[in-house]
Amino acid sequence: MARSLVVAALAACITAACASPATHGSGAPRSRIGIAAGGDFQTFSPSERARYLDQVKALGASWIRIDLYWSIIQRNGPASYDWRGFDGAVQAARRRGLAVLGVLLFTPRWARPPGTTSHAPPRNPSDFGAFAFRAAKHYRGLGVRAYEIWNEPNIVDFWAPGPDPAGYTRLLEQAYREIKRADPHATVVSAGLSPSGVYGASDLQHMNPLNFLEQMYANGARGNMDAVGWHPYNFPEGFAYHPSSAWSQMAATTPSARSIMRANGDAKKKIWATEWGAPTGASAKSLSEVAQARLVTISLSRFTAWRWAGPSFLYSLRDTGTNATDLEQNFGLVRNDWSKKPAYQAFRRLAATHR
Known about the structure:
By secondary structure, the protein is an alpha/beta fold. It has one domain (about 5-350): Glycosidases (TIM Barrel). Helix content is about 35%, strand content about 15%. It has 11 helices and 8 strands. The protein is globular, with a radius of gyration of 19 Å. It starts with a helix and ends with a helix.
């Protein structure tokens, strides 16, 4: 497929898109289009960070998702706070007019069970609540007004030794209460849930996000979040209905995230797509660069048209490496050498219609 066909597909999607984005929250941009920076953004040098954020701004994105690691900020104990690195990232984003979604996650050694990693939840959720209060108070002064509580707790990769919806909801409750105490107007988003099979699929290390969301509500999540986080990755399936597609599970499956929200009295809350995208490269699940551009075009067009969708954060701006066979290294809109893939212009053109 020629690059001109990508542009044609983009034009068709723009024509089909409906309502323009509504303003979200105090001081938030009208646009709901953002970039998920990925982990360890706080380690970038000032020049690397500037180049990255300048590209995010040039794309027309209005939001950036930045991880704020509890495990690092309080690594020296419950009375110690080291914001360095994270402050530099947040300040640089805010100087460029980008709204920040701060992700609070990972447990310092002193707060978790012996012999576990930072991906284990804390022994006492109140310790996380205390950190959430201090983080919201600190970053309120830097213009951060939205927080996501953890990342993908429905899989062992981020919640060890395995998913625990009740345990996660206790953590969410503590964080919600303390963030609102520090900043009553802040938006609190539940953790973006990972794709994981069809409804009902579960084992000791993975739980389907719909089942996880149902159990969050059963354990009191409704009063402890302002929006539902979701990771609607839709590769390699694309946009066709598929029962195991996290994209379809937002609103097309039975049940869906939307139907679960309605059943629990949360129809007015939005789903924030806090991470999504598709890799190029040479792995079995990779897309061609033209196919990636088409996926970005159609996804953004639909996200911005759905009234129940909040901000969406594409992962990510830049490839993290050059190994074409490694799926994880190739999610960027630009290659590792900063040269632009077709998806860069697809994103930029559509973002321009939502400023």
